[in-house]
Amino acid sequence: MDIDLDLAEFVIDYAKKIGASYADARLESTAANGFVLKNGIPQISGFDRAKGIGVRVVIKGTLGFASTNDLSKESVKRVVEKAAKLTGYASKIGEKVKFSDVEAHVANYKVKQKIKLADLEPKDKLKVLFDAEKAMKSTKAKVPGRFFSLGDFYTEKYFVNSEGSKILSSIPRTDFWYFITIEHGARTAQRYWQYGDSGGFETIYKHNFPKLLKEEVLGTKKNLEKGVKPPKENVDVVIGPQITGIMVHESVGHPYEADRVLGREAAQAGESFLTLNMLGTRIGSGAVNIVDDPTLPGSFGYYLYDDEGVKAKERWLIKKGVIGDLLHNRETAAIVGHKSNAAARATGYDREPIVRMANTVFKPGSYKEEELIEGVTNGVFIKNFMEWNIDDKRLNAKYTGAEAYMIRNGRLAEPVLKPTIEISTPKLWDSVDAAGKNIEYHSGTCGKAEPMQAIPVWFGGPSLRIKNIKLK
Amino acid sequence: MTKARTKRRSTSPARKSETREEAPFIAEYLIRKLKRGGADDVIVNATTEEATQLKFSNNVINTTKTWHNDKIDVFVSIEKKLVATSIKELTGKAADDVVNKMFKFVKAALPTKEYKGVAEGPYKYKNIPDTYDKAIENLDGTNVDILNACINAAKKNKAKRLAGVLETSVTNSYLLTSNNVEVEEKGTKAYFSIRAFVDKYASGHQVCNSRVLKKFKPETSAEKAAIIAKQAVNPKHGEPGNYDVIFSPLPFSNFLASFGEATSIFNVESKLSCLANKIGKRVASSKVNLVDDGSLPNGFGTSLSDDEGVPTQRNILVDKGVLKTYLHNTSTAKKHKTTTTANAGLVSPSPFNLVLEKGNFNKEEMIKQVKRGLIVTNVWYTRFQNYESGDFSTIPRDGMFLIENGKVKGAVKELRISDNLLRIMQNVAAVGKDQEATFGWEVEIPTVTPPVLVKDVRVTKSSN
After folding, report:
1. For the CA atoms of A267, A272, A277, A282, what is the dihedral angle to 10 degrees?
2. Is the dihedral angle over the CA atoms B98, B101, B105, B106 positive or is it negative?
3. Does this model's pTM top 0.80?
4. Which of A331, B71, B259, B436 is deepest in the core (most CB within 10 A)?
5. B360 to chain A, minimum CA–CA distance in Å?
6. What is residue B107's predicted lDDT score, i.e. its pLDDT?
7. Is the pLDDT of residue A1 over 80?
8. Distance between CA B102 and CA B84 in Å, rounded?
9. Within the 69-108 window of chain A, which residues sit less than 8 Å (CB to CB) from chain B?
């Protein structure tokens, strides 16, 4: 790390000297590269080096956050003094914060890279985008809008707090994103998706984007060409892992964030339909098992210690249909009398750590995807989706399918055009009767907080069968 | 406070001081080094920002936040190979590192054949009133008192729980290009967002912003949010169907921001716009007159110049429902044989402040026109199914009220608007006369709009 690590310890000592009862500091350095190809033409390439420090202090019982990217001691002192003064003044109408007790850790971990991000030339990275472009052309389909981007990020972070934790981490990440417009006659469809991982550039090569994009274009084209309206009667629906992924993220991960449940994010990100007295009660069928696990190797949301220095572990959110743990940082855990389960994350040194998901996953069941489909007499298989949204309590969601097919007597039949599921969260999880074993992990950049913190996450799971629901 | 710098500096950044005072020296140093190395165009934009935020929920301040950020954005073109970077240290060493890496990057990059260059100065910049206020820069803790007054104002109006943010910032920026452009700017901003709750299912949300303290009215926003929350108690489940909807400024600015983004030529070319091939054609009701004004006094997005240094201007986007222009930078304008609208974005031209011209109606007059309708005071999670067609859905949140035969009949909940952006704009039936400035999570472009009545809006709900 090209920052003097002693600065973090210096800040902690200085914060205590000017009256902080608790202090922590995150020194961070991120080197990033980015490339964009629009309709076959490279756009501006970019690189970025961000480094700075974020400091939290508790002054007169209230929490203050300060950050600067001027890493001279004078600047850091000035910003921390300013924050301490403001926080002291704010404490007259400030929350009296308490942190749940945690063990102090001293650790150093890094994610290995088989192909180092720094070893590749920009043209090697641009080639990934040109290969995607070639794949589009090889389909002979009409794809008038082709937008591809590729990014890589290498973040080194040093966390120190006044309770003795000192944690150094190095995490490389890669991120490929596409947005394509497919035309057939008067019909058009647009699809975008993201592939994000932690690791070196080998994570980009493993996906085989040309093959994925070719399948995507041909599947969507067929849908536009031959798609029929979805059935009006209630039917059984089998969804693919991409839809399972977005559903567990939106309908489980978010409402399980304890800061939402406690009203701390009420202004923008919203609250939750969940209340503390619903813990331990049933929300879905026995087939529903959902976890959030920051420690999944290679994951986009990977970390071993969160941004409060708490050791990460798998968190059970729903077990056999019953509500398990919420996602907690030290502050929300203390409020409800629990221990933090290491969900505090910040997107960078200049943001406050808040409760976030990492990798939210529906645990695999025992069926092959074909077996799930074989069990349906009259229904629809929805492989992936275009539009989605959910209200800010996470109670009513909408998912509009992109590639979808009728299921007749256990077999896939003609394509279905834009089948839409508009469903409440309890009804959704109650209607899942079987889970496949074909688990896939997908990635996203999850938004929360003000100013916005767009953070890397995985969401995933297997194909699911949902019984007797209405499509639009 | 804005001024054009008249005298060039010629010293190297090796001067010892590494404060923001050094930004002009570093900018000039970068341009000189990059030009010597063969660059055709260079743009350097150095900014220093000091900002604070008070984040509150459950009627108390949860966290104070204090930021200091230095940044230098650098753009270079060499034989149509384009590279951009952003460095966060205003030091000579960082400048040298950037120069070396940019040349390395350019060597390996491929040309952007459609690139046609950046703006050629020099330009004169007019002073824009109400963009800087010393009172905001020197608040020094009195923002806590302002917030306390807001919380109390909302409580007086029966709100039980309040959450939001109060932010202030001061930004110094210095833009220098290889093409005779030099502009220095200092600006302040104040922003307030408050959501008031009477209970879990009865809430109201308001935002306000200003560049100067005397026009910043957060207490009024707090009172309004509380009044909406109070009216929203005991909501009934709404029914799906088609409704005439009165959108308050906050939700309608969400639609206008999407529409404004769709006027960017970059989005038109990328199939991210429903306005392709529509110049000179009707894209909205004749009651819609929309401008983008980067020079708007007290505009939250106002700036002396765009990212190339072209002085900002007022562009008519929609005149009586007819689309008049796309937004361009110099390069895209040359490609499309037109002139820049001063909306660079070096990659994607973008609006500064969208302003919907006010109409003649007050809210009561609009309500009287509606037989079966809704009042929507906020929307959330707008997602497009197809940007090219304009199909989207969004979810009303906070107070939503049913109108029957010209009268408000109480609050409703759990509905979704599933419609089309062009259809919404074409179905505008009445425009209110009271404009509000909005900006925030769901409105990423500063927008000024009155409430708007839209006929025949498609409304759905969970059928499972």
Report:
1. 180
2. positive
3. yes
4. B259
5. 32
6. 84
7. no
8. 8
9. 69-70, 72, 75, 78-79, 82-83, 85-87, 89-95, 97
